[in-house]
UniProtKB/TrEMBL annotation:
Annotated metabolic or biological route of this protein: Protein modification; protein ubiquitination
Record flagged with keyword Nucleus: yes
Protein name: F-box only protein 25
Organism phylogeny: Eukaryota, Metazoa, Chordata, Craniata, Vertebrata
Residues in the signal sequence: none
Subcellular locations according to the entry: Nucleus
Function per UniProt: Substrate-recognition component of the SCF (SKP1-CUL1-F-box protein)-type E3 ubiquitin ligase complex. May play a role in accumulation of expanded polyglutamine (polyQ) protein huntingtin (HTT).
SUPFAM superfamilies attached to this UniProt entry: F-box domain
Organism per entry: Balaenoptera acutorostrata
GO biological process, one term: protein ubiquitination
Length: 357
């Protein structure tokens, strides 16, 4: 008899044999009644009381799941949610687990949509989206693409509302638009999951976001106390807390005092020593006319050749004992005696490398 079920261990549906072949029993209707009369079968012989109860429960469960699926499918701004906020990372089939974990599956399962609302995770998620845009965009499934652009939309709207991290998101959108332009031009040669018209609409949306960020105007807050009112040594301490050279340059454009402090050679020397090593200094040494090292110029020169250290308030973690990727606040069902010793912070690049086969 044909079988139709969500799980091979489930009892399946109830069926009836007709002249045209086997047909699945539907709720009692006049059409089915006429069919059963022709076949000489009564409703009692088709379904007994126990089978009818099982059938009604399964029919109700199937309808409920279908309504939820249609709801998420029709709502384009909704992410696919999962109860567990972790995912088992496996790269080969085993007796217990078949197939392997993909980047798209991990992007769906890990709660990036709500992570954008956390100030500690915002930069981490934005950097991860930027790396995916550069090299892994075509490896996302259709659902993962939908979630990706929903998260990106949430990020852009957040920046437009609170005016924080606009330069980071501008770089992200620039890399994403460049990648999409290349993929759309070579649509016959590249692998794009989905209709080409959808990708064209997404590119138009990205260009619209870029225009909105370009026209973003910072609102002046009249709170009484400003940076100009702070002592010079406090302003200097603020600059020494920055790990990005562009942030120092931007802050130096606020007032003449900050402009003078942002040109401090010791500040740029410390920044270079934090991000790069001595061997890298020797390869890109820049001297002034007086023979002094131009640390500011060296920083931007080294930045073009070597990656800088990245700082994040919170990151994903990987459990070496369970091979599970998770947010530390959410946790996961670890079976190790000392779970904390098995946890390893996962940088955005490490996240991408976990799903390269």
């Amino acid at each position: 008899m044909p079988f139709l079920g969500q799980d091979w261990r489930s009892p399946g549906w109830s069926w009836i044999k007709t002249e045209d072949g086997w047909k699945r029993c539907e709720p009692w209707t006049e059409g089915l009644e006429g069919e059963t009369h022709r076949c000489g079968a009564s409703h009692g012989t088709i379904l007994n009381s126990e089978d009818e109860e099982i059938f009604n429960n399964e029919e109700h469960e199937y309808a409920s799941k279908k309504r939820k699926k249609d709801h998420f499918r029709n709502d384009k701004n909704t992410q696919c949610f999962y109860r567990e906020k972790w995912i088992y990372v496996h790269k080969e089939s085993t007796r217990e687990r078949h197939g392997y974990c993909t980047l798209g599956e991990a992007f769906n399962r890990l709660d990036f949509f709500s992570a954008v609302q956390d100030a500690r995770r915002f930069t981490y998620v934005a950097r991860l989206l930027q790396l995916i845009a550069k090299s892994q965009l075509t490896s996302l499934s259709g659902v993962a693409q939908k979630n990706y652009f929903n998260v990106l939309d949430k990020i852009v709207q957040k920046v437009l509302d609170d005016h924080q991290n606009p330069r980071l998101i501008k770089d992200l959108l620039q890399d994403l638009s460049s990648t999409l332009c290349i993929l759309i031009r070579g649509v016959g040669k590249s692998v794009l999951v989905g209709n080409i018209n959808i990708w064209v609409c997404r590119l138009e949306t990205i260009l619209n976001w870029q225009q909105q960020l370009q026209n973003l105007q910072m609102t002046e807050v009249d709170s009484g106390l400003t940076l100009s009112d702070l002592p010079v040594h406090m302003l200097s301490n603020i600059l020494y807390r920055f790990s990005d050279g562009w942030d120092i340059v931007t802050l130096g454009q606020v007032t003449p005092t900050l402009s003078a402090l942002s040109e401090d050679r010791r500040l740029w020397k410390k920044l270079c020593q934090y991000h790069f090593g001595e061997k890298q200094f020797c390869r890109h040494l820049i001297l002034s006319e007086k023979g002094h090292i131009e640390w500011k110029l060296m920083y931007f020169a080294l930045q073009k050749h070597y990656p800088t250290k990245e700082q994040y308030g919170d990151t994903l973690h990987f459990c070496r004992h369970c091979s599970i990727l998770f947010w530390k606040d959410s946790g996961h069902p670890c079976t190790a005696t000392d779970p904390d010793s098995c946890f390893t912070p996962v940088s955005p690049q490490h996240f991408i490398d976990l799903f390269k086969f």
